[in-house]
Amino acid sequence: MSAETELVTALFLPMWNEAALFLPLWNEAALFLPMWNEAALFLPLWNEAALLLSMWNEAALFLPMWNEAALFLPLWNEAALFLPMWNEAALFLPMWNEAAL
User: Fold this and answer.
1) Residue 65 and residue 51: Cα distance in Å, rounded?
2) Contacts of residue 1, Cβ cutoff 8 Å, sequence gap at least 6
């Protein structure tokens, strides 16, 4: 061996020894490969979900309008107070129908 080869070998051997300590971890990681393959089956679903995200972004544009609409909720609550009166008025509908004849 040349002096350069010996020098390079001497420098990298300690690193290789350290790297060898990770081999058992790699063996354990290899056990998860079948799970990764199963997870890959869900990738098309993730692509579809990404399409829904763009729709949600568009829907978010309407949030300010919903906030404005919420300003009318107190008016709806007041209008709801008249519902019992409308129910009573509905009792007169048959009479109105007869009168219309």
Assistant:
1) 23
2) 9
**pTM attached to this predicted model:** 0.29
**What is the chain written as a DSSP string?**
--HHHHHHHHHHHHHHHHHHTTHHHHHHHHTTHHHHHHHHTTHHHHHHHHHHHHHHHHHHTTHHHHHHHHTTHHHHHHHHTTHHHHHHHHHTHHHHHHHH-
4, HSE (Cβ side, Cα atoms, 13 Å): 0
From first to last of its 101 residues, the chain has per-residue pLDDT tens of: 688 888 888 888 888 888 888 888 888 888 888 888 888 888 888 889 888 888 888 888 888 888 888 888 888 888 888 888 888 888 888 888 888 88
